[in-house]
Design a protein that fits this description.
Number of strands: 10
CATH superfamily: Cyclophilin-like
Strand order of the largest sheet: 1-2-7-5-6-4-3-10
CATH topology: Cyclophilin
Number of helices: 3
Radius of gyration: 23 Å
Strand content: 25-35%
Length: about 190
């Protein structure tokens, strides 16, 4: 009898606790826009938080840390890409975190004005470097036989600034044998807008 009563009391107290415990909160949505202030003007990017959540969260982590502030576009190839986010104007590399999973199969394509993650030849090797497509670049998209390059955003304001960056004079600078802007294009600050 005592055992049955104790079991009933434990069951009741457990159900009361379960009723009082609020459901777990949904994670806050990721911010969806960032502004780049550069030495050549400003532009705004809308991030694809649903289609590339790992890539966006990785990028935003670097933004929150101030990693991109004071970096340069170290590679600009006309009618291809403007790449940056890893080097200072003195051409020194900034430290990075671990690599992330390639999300290139998310349905987004490397169209003019989109933001993608640069990587090494290895598919899952992206860290902090990004690029902006200066033209449609279907060769960067995934195929059934190979990984592509992850698109995770699109320029929604200031494409004229991107076009100016895409036409700077380039050549050999420091450790870069080609395609480096002869006058540094500095990313002064990246700011989360919402």
């Amino acid at each position: 009898m005592k055992y049955a009563l104790a079991t009933t009391l434990l069951a009741l107290s457990g159900s009361l606790l379960a009723q009082e415990t609020p459901p777990p909160a949904e994670p806050a949505p990721l911010p969806s826009r960032v502004r780049f202030d550069t030495s050549m003007g400003s532009f705004t990017v809308r991030l694809e938080t649903e289609r590339a959540p790992i890539t966006v969260e990785n990028f935003l982590s670097y933004v929150r840390e101030g990693h991109y502030n004071g970096t340069i576009f170290h590679r600009v190839v006309q009618n291809f890409v403007a790449q940056g986010g890893a080097f200072t104007p003195e051409n020194e590399g900034k430290p990075t975190r671990a690599t992330i999973v390639n999300e290139s199969g998310n349905g987004l394509t490397n169209r003019r004005g989109t933001l993608g993650m640069a990587r090494l030849e290895k598919a899952h090797s992206a860290t902090c470097q990004f690029y902006i497509n200066l033209a449609d670049n279907p060769d960067l998209n995934p195929l059934p036989s190979r990984w592509g390059y992850t698109v995770f955003g699109e320029v929604v304001e200031g494409m004229d600034v991107i076009d100016r960056i895409g036409h700077v004079a380039t050549g050999a600078v420091g450790p870069f044998k080609q395609d480096a802007p002869l006058k540094p294009v500095v990313i002064e600050k990246v700011t989360i807008l919402e």
